Write the structure tokens for this entry.
Amino acid sequence: MGDALDMVRNEDGIAAVLGVLEQQFGEACHTGQAVRAQHGHTTTWIPTQAPDAVIFAKSTEEVAAIVKICATHKVPVIAYGTGTSLEGHVNAPVGGVCIDMSEMNKILAVHDQDLDCVVQPGVTREQLNLHLRDQGLFFPIDPGANASLGGMASTRASGTNAVRYGTMKDNVLALEVVLPSGEVIRTASRAKKSSAGYDLTRLMIGAEGTLGIITEITLKLQGIPEAMSSARCSFASVDAACQAVMATIQYGIPVARIELLDAMSVKAANAYSKLDLPETPLLLLEFHGSESGVAEQAEVFGAIAEDAGGTGFVWTTKPEDRTKLWQARHDMYWASLQLRPGAKGVSTDVCVPISRLAECVAAASEKAAELGLLAPVVGHVGDGNFHTLPLIDMENAEEVAKAEGFVSWLNDLAISMGGTCTGEHGIGQGKKPYLRKELGGAVDVMAAVKAAIDPDGIMNPGKIL
């Protein structure tokens, strides 16, 4: 994984570009090994592939200038947000220039009456929500990590709130983008809807930086609900928990979050987050609305859970209790690593139609056990998306091969069920082999779009296609 067999490193072009960039950007252009390695860092098992230089851009004009220089010499350009992506998105397989967007972190405007805001791509979701809190507003997309909004748009991120509020594609109104030529375009206006031409906004969302670099984002906002309640309920099996999830969605209960932890994940959460939950499959839920509304939603879910054999149903509106539960959920990656210290966690990301959820989760757990893999399961199961996390000794070649086989098998299974190999992490380098299996000839259309917009292939090469 992460290979670039059909790509050639442009040594002369890179040398020329580095000379120009060091002269033009001075200390903002970094070529030291440590900084370069950090910006090729990947949080999964794909090997790190560092760029040749890292530039901390401060404006759209600077990004455009860098891209123009690279375009002139046909040198790759890779955008970098916070480095939390999971499929090798920020790797530089044939070198090139990494543009770090972290210093483009200004909230440019908040239009509270219109429920939208304009931000630079380096703004993180936590930074934005802290800024919005006193205005009674929030941005709902929550992938767990404190990711940059530019990176979230580029990977079409999702998270725990997606079952109610959708994903990034549903919450971005417009983008400012630097194209591979260095030209700057705006994809749409602030209007809540438009029929004006091709939907370039959604073309760029999820393009993973392969069509351009996002330099400004106009986002939809939500009012902070009058009331929120959180609930938890334990089940005898993952299947029973999934049946409760399906019934909840089919009944039309407007849950904001509904998350699954299998018994192994609950054990990890208890140890890492100092909880005392029963170590059986668990559902965590959150309801948003009026005080009476969230109480009614919680009570209806309680009845559904009881019918599915759920036990220990508890719900609360206390902010401190809700925060403790959801922080434990967001810490699950680190908690799971403690189940096998020194192991590497390989996060899968399949999503299936809700009617196939129980079957797919059960099959994944059974397959992991059959292979002897320690693989806790968590999931945003309200929309059919779940993650297994095989914990792998990367020095054990046999174990690595088993894990690779498991990941491939699970992706194929999800696709065969009418699902996808990636609900929210994106394709990057790691999932390229599965894109054509999932979408067939549509991949050729994507390649044609890529060739038309980026004929020299300089934008984040080696990703998606």
